[in-house]
Amino acid sequence: MPRKSDTYDAASISVLEGLEAVRKRPGMYIGSTSRKGLNHLIYEIVDNAVDEHLAGYCTHIRVTLEKDGSCTVEDDGRGIPVDMHEKGVPAERLVFTTLHAGGKFDNSVYKTSGGLHGVGSSVVNALSAYLDIRISRDGSIHHDRYEKGEPVLPLENGLLPKIGKTKQTGTTVNFLPDAEIFEKTRFSATEVKSRLHETAYLNPKLTILFEDLRGDEPQREEYCEPEGIVGYIRDLNRNAQVLHEPVLLKGESEGIRVEAAFQFVNEFRENVLGFCNNIFNAEGGTHLTGFKTIFTSVMNNYARELGVLKEKDPNFTGADIRTGMTAVVSIKHPAPRFEGQTKTKLDNPDASRVCSKVIGEQLVLFFDRNLETLKTVLSCAEKAAKIRKTEEKAKTNLLTKQKYSFDSNGKLANCEKKDPALCEIFIVEGDSAGGSAKTARDRNYQAILPIRGKILNVEKATIDKVLANAEIKTMINAFGCGFSEGYGNDFDITKLRYDKIVIMADADVDGAHISTLLLTLFYRFMPELIYEGHVYIAMPPLYKVMPKKGAEEYLYDDKALERYRRKHKPGSFTLQRYKGLGEMDADQLWETTLNPETRRMKKVEIEDARLASSVTEVLMGSEVPPRKAFIYEHARDAELDI
User: Strand 60-65 relative to strand 207-212: parallel, antiparallel, unpaired?
Assistant: First the structure.
């Protein structure tokens, strides 16, 4: 039970600095203004409710996607303080209008939280067309409202107006993302549900309710996972051939709680996820470094003791030992430091030290009592090491270094500049489009790489077939940074020769399929290209309209054509439809697709790595029924770009 002395009132709210122009630079706080940043608004409010759960006061969180496009997050915690702060305003207004104001800076209020940035609530407020908040606390329901970050309700005797009485406690926040800020304002139910389910796995005593009221029929889900991260491991491996039961390791040192679960499957891949204070760290961090290092050390020691490795044998690499591993590492840290507001990478040195200590001790205790599981894990490492050595020889033969300017078929038209920060490469399907692109480009900084038709679907292929594919070899050689796969990693992002890798396919179904195959290749074998923001998709127009009076226009999709037809009389213009990039002359291709001043491109981003991997497996794998089920389930969520 919470200690009565852990008071949470206006005095608990610490202020570091005032609210600055978040609306001018939203990417600094939420990563981007794409759907990824949009969904991040929900996560910031949910994370505040989860912090209340970690403090021992909240057991239920409800997240509702409303019909009007807004989102409501409700919790049964203590309720944000509403009494007068020493700054002369109600504490709640301080939380929602001041950066770095909140209870997370008072260690007696929150022992652990999702970070020390303290900007979540105020940033969501600043980036919302409106934000409405109701706080149940001290027997009353307190109400406040903001528009574009500014309060619009008058105070009553200096405090928030009361709109009712209640015996309950908690906070309800309803907000509508500002269309002036975000590229799209429709939340992704799939991604939000994935994040909420993940949060439930990390908090076994928490129940999260999700509702989507935007469709014809309301969609409801309840997430409660009493098995915690062990259940998460089972879920991640639900479609895999598992080799043993999940193993749970946990302990505490230096005030940091560590919990890790792992299980090996009969696949040549590694899936290790890191969390700090319930926040997924997409780029890992010191806690994962500590986990991986000690796991490798312990397993090599056992391999020597059991004779799996002889005296003259080199140690297994970390990749050897983690081949087939699915693991979740979750720590609770009283003072986490992250690289960036979106908390993608943990930076605390003590997290590595504590993880190494706790996991090392618990791992030895477990394996000393579970010899069969130990042998299973070592057999995976042994098998991976053999394959790695075989593949190293194969790579030497298959990936011979080519001249910088041309691939093995002499088709890469490279750019003249050598500074990667200035260069970009366009992957173009077909000789005709490739020829036009080579003529249209600015050869100073734009390279053109034509490929023939649809490349290999790497989700269904073995590694030797992937490496033997001529088109894939050409791309690997052109990019210059190698590739990575489940039992080795020869990828080095610092050797990338181009800042932008642009997929330039026709604006039709076949072009979309080619783009999907290329994205699957990058995601499975060169994922850092996507995570580091180097992959783009060109958006060539579908139509060119030539009015009898006025300027010609390019239209990029059917919706744009519909809008144009509504505004222009039939017969007042001539319409040209581009069946492919090869139908454009060099000037048109430059103007619409290559010229940085006039072109349109989409940057490829991954918000949820776990969800992305699962969806890629479903949509690009060999099993047809799951693919059909996914398409039918998500058809109503499809949204065309306008």
Answer: parallel
**What pLDDT, in 10s, does the model give residues 512-567?**
778 888 888 888 788 888 878 899 988 888 888 998 888 888 888 888 888 889 88
* Rounded-to-integer distance, Cα 363 and Cα 349, Å: 21
Q: Which of 144, 204, 197, 200 lies closest to 174 in space, CA to CA?
A: 144
SS (H, E, C) 121-145: HHHHHHCEEEEEEEEEECCEEEEEE
Q: How many CB atoms lie within 10 A of CB 479?
A: 22
CA of 348: how far to CAs of 50, 332, 358, in Å?
22, 12, 16
DSSP-derived letter for residue 337 is -
Sheet of strand 247-253: strand arrangement:
247-253, 256-264, 325-332, 271-276, 279-280
Between CA 190 and CA 501 the distance in angstroms is 28
- From the list 92, 429, 607, 608, the catalytic residue is 429
Does residue 252 carry a catalytic annotation?
no
Q: Which of 353, 366, 445, 452 is nearest to 409 (CA)?
A: 452
Collapsing DSSP states into helix, strand and coil, what is residue 211?
strand
CA distance 184 to 638: 13
Catalytic residue among 510, 623, 633, 639: 510
Query: DSSP label at 592?
Result: I
Q: Which two tokens stand for residue 440?
A: 């249209």
Residues contacting 267, CB < 8 A, separation 6+: 240, 241, 324, 486
Q: Residue written as tokens 């100073």?
A: 444
Structure tokens at 257: 């709680």
429 labelled catalytic: yes
- pLDDT value, residue 569: 87
Alpha helices in 370-500 (DSSP H): 371-398, 431-440, 463-468, 470-479
Alpha carbon distance 57, 41 (integer Å): 23
The residues, any chain, with a CB within 8 Å of residue 312's CB and separated by 6 or more, are none
Predicted pLDDT at 620: 55
List Cβ neighbours of 418 (8 Å cut-off, separation of 6 or more): none
pTM: 0.73
CA 248 – CA 235 distance, rounded (Å):
15
637 classed as catalytic: no
Residue with tokens 């999700």: 210
DSSP-derived secondary structure letter, 75: E
Measured distance between the N- and C-terminal CA atoms of the chain, rounded to whole angstroms = 52
Q: Of the residues 44, 506, 607, 608, which is catalytic?
A: 506
CA distance 111 to 533: 35
Question: Would you call 392 a catalytic residue per the annotation?
Answer: no
Given 86, 313, 508, 587, which residue is catalytic? Answer: 508
- Per the DSSP assignment, residues forming a β-bridge with 338 are 346
Q: Which amino acid is at 465?
A: K
